[in-house]
Amino acid sequence: MWVRMWVRMWAMCGDEGWDERMMEHAPAHRSMVARATAAMASSAVTSSTLSMSATRMVGKTIVKKGGEAEVGHLYSDDNPGTTQKGTGFANAEAALRTTRLVEDRPPNKRIWTINTMLHRAKHHPHQTQGMRDAIAIFEDWIRKYKEEKESQKKAKKNSSTRSQSQPHDQHRELVASSANAFSYANSKDFDSFLSLSRETLKEGKAALRKAVEEASRQSSCAGAAACTIQQFTAVFGGPGTHGYGKHVIEGGRHTVRIESVEELTKMVGKTCVRGLKEGSISFEVTYQESESDAFLCFQINRGEKATRTLDSFFIKAK
Questions:
Q1: Shared-domain flag, residues 136 and 202
Q2: What are residue 293's DSSP bridge partners?
Q3: Long-range pairs, 269-277, Cβ under 8 A, ≥24
Q4: 147 and 63, same structural domain?
Q5: Where does the chain show beta strands of DSSP type E?
Q6: Contact 82/112 with Cβ under 8 angstroms?
Q7: What does DSSP assign to residue 163?
Q8: How many CB atoms lie within 10 A of CB 51?
Q9: Are residues 280 and 233 in the same domain?
Q10: Residue 184 shares a structural domain with residue 226
Q11: Which residue stretches belong to region Disordered (predicted)?
């Protein structure tokens, strides 16, 4: 009887006012049961609504965010597997920079990132000629990538040993290097990681400013300063993290080069590198795994009013 009455009231009231009307029509001796039932129903609806609003149905890839499972998309900006600072698809130059930046990533994330940029360029609502140039570059990169993978498969079939490919070994060696000694993965908790990161960043910027001041006093307009590789990584990024420039490792000796003004602009903004022309600046850091210090040097072409700009750049670097 009670079930039939509740069903009739639900049909008359709909969702709104259901819990109030149920308690109004309930006899006194059943008011507590009615209130409890209404509260549970209301709580279930609220919980379901919040859950649905917190989940964005934009794809099939599950992304962990805030401790809860969230539906993400392979090509969305919040997917860490396909997003890397400095990459882009606005024009041919951005596409070429993207192909350079992904070289330090593991092979699977290289193709993910390039495919992502290609997908975004192809489906952009306001596609430009620059984007079409980028599409051609990405498609050519993917074609060469597939040809290389095919040749590797054939080599594996003809080889008696199944060793890891060189790109995998290269990335594994980069991630395990001393440059990542202060990374979050190697920290005991987040607070210690945050504190150490801030201190390392502060020390790194101080060492770089010292190099800039030295360069401003030299007739050759070149300077150098000793800093730990952890300090350099804190400022510029490095192996195992997103970074800029080209990171090469040979026998435990690392070399990081940055020669693009655009890459510096992407890092710190236009204001800090104003006045610099492409090819007018070069950064290089070299360090040996067995040594604790890295040797950093940078050079500015003569005739550029860039020393003061670079000084402010190091001060503002984050």
A1: no
A2: 228
A3: 272/309, 272/312, 272/313, 272/316, 272/317, 273/309, 273/310, 273/313, 274/309, 275/304, 275/305, 275/306, 275/309, 276/304, 276/306, 276/309, 277/304
A4: yes
A5: 61-65, 68-72, 222-228, 246-250, 253-258, 281-288, 293-300
A6: yes
A7: P
A8: 10
A9: yes
A10: yes
A11: 149-173
Same domain membership, residue 237 and residue 114:
no
Domain carrying residue 223: 179-316
Enclosing H/E stretch for 16:
none
301's tokens: 């072409």
d(CA 55, CA 79): 15
pTM (global) more than 0.85: no
User: What's the average model confidence in pLDDT over 131-150?
Assistant: 93
Rounded CA gap, 59 and 119, in Å?
14
Residue 118: Cβ within 10 Å count:
21
Tell me if 92 is assigned to some domain. Answer: yes
> What mean pLDDT value characterizes the chain?
67
**Beta-carbon count within 10 A of 21 CB:** 16
- 85 φ/ψ angles, rounded to the nearest 5 degrees: -65, 140
Tens digit of each residue's pLDDT (9 = 90 or more) over 73-92: 555 555 555 556 678 899 99
- Band (306; pLDDT cuts 50, 70, 90): very low
Q: What are phi and psi for residue 36, nearest 5 degrees? A: -65, -45
Same domain, yes or no, for 187 and 278?
yes
Same domain, 112 and 198: no
Structure confidence at residue 33 (pLDDT): 44
* Beta bridge partner(s), residue 254: 249, 287
Q: CB atoms < 10 A from the CB of 26, how many?
A: 19
